[in-house]
Design goal:
By secondary structure, the protein is of the alpha/beta class. It has two domains: about 230 residues, P-loop containing nucleotide triphosphate hydrolases (Rossmann fold); about 70 residues, no CATH class. Helices cover about 35% and strands about 25% of the residues. The chain has twelve helices and twelve strands. Strands 6-7-8-3-9-10-12-11 form an eight-stranded mixed sheet, with helices on both faces. The chain has a four-stranded antiparallel sheet with strand order 2-1-4-5, with helices on one face. A hairpin with a 2-residue loop joins strand 1 and strand 2. Helix 4 crosses helix 5, helix 5 crosses helix 7 and helix 7 packs parallel to helix 8. The longest helix is centred in the middle third of the chain and has 18 residues.
Amino acid sequence: MAEAVLKIKNLCVDFLDDHTIVPAVSDLSIDIFPGETVGLVGESGCGKSTTSLAIMRLLDTNNARISKGSIELHGQDLTKLSEKEMQRIRGKEISMIFQEPMTSLNPVYTIGRQLTEGIVLHQGVSQKEAETIAIDMLQKVDIPRPEIMMKSYPFELSGGMRQRVMIAIALSCNPKILIADEPTTALDVTVQAQILDLMNSLRDELQMAVILITHDLGVVAEICKYVYVMYAGQIVETAAIDDLLNDPLHPYTQGLLNSMPDRWQGGDRLYNIPGTVPLPGTEIKGCKFADRCEYCTEKCRQAPPPLVRLDEHRSVRCFRSAGTQ
């Protein structure tokens, strides 16, 4: 069996608010293998993007910190590296497609300049060679007339084109791991399908691992092999995608699936999970999903359920679903 390219073990991330420690991610563990796409899913505020920033070591150190755990890339713990050492890894070993391409691309620089900057830095080639690599990368992401596109500015591109440029920048140095944070948000359905197909084909071609961060289980079903469901900073269920879709165990996962339009059984309104995700730092004695769960019992409110491993790829954080109630 192939060795995991990235191993996240017991990762904890805290926010610092007026000298108060606010837990944002708690004891998160994930293994990522080459050529594999895993999904990290959950509502806004569950800790998905915070996890991705922690992996990239891009947390704002003025108000956030990794308080526990390790992030091992080929056995090297990224949490112990200096900022200078991380700069050599970002873009080359691990790249990220950020959530909003219009704000992630610099509006005053051409697409060509933004593409070649990382290539020159990480591959040690001349500017002319970097431009050749950049044009080839734009062709790989199906951007027409790449030579002309190199001279364009972000505001001249459509949303779908900007997202393709972001993918080209992220993959320009052939990283081992790609983190895609909501890569199809605000794109129409046709463009969304094209972007997902593109990510699938580039993953297979480059044999890289992909971490897809999204709230949309429909997107996960299209591209992912395994899924990690997050709620209130914790993993509440892990499963192969087919197992998750056919037999969701955690009540939160069941609610997410029931909220999908293509699973709607009809009626006055589309199903939604009652309540909201608790704010980071909210003191909860028992299960963090208890207030929103139709199966909640007194035990759920008295003690936090552990993440119980059911088989090699399946875990659940629920007394009822794990058979421990």
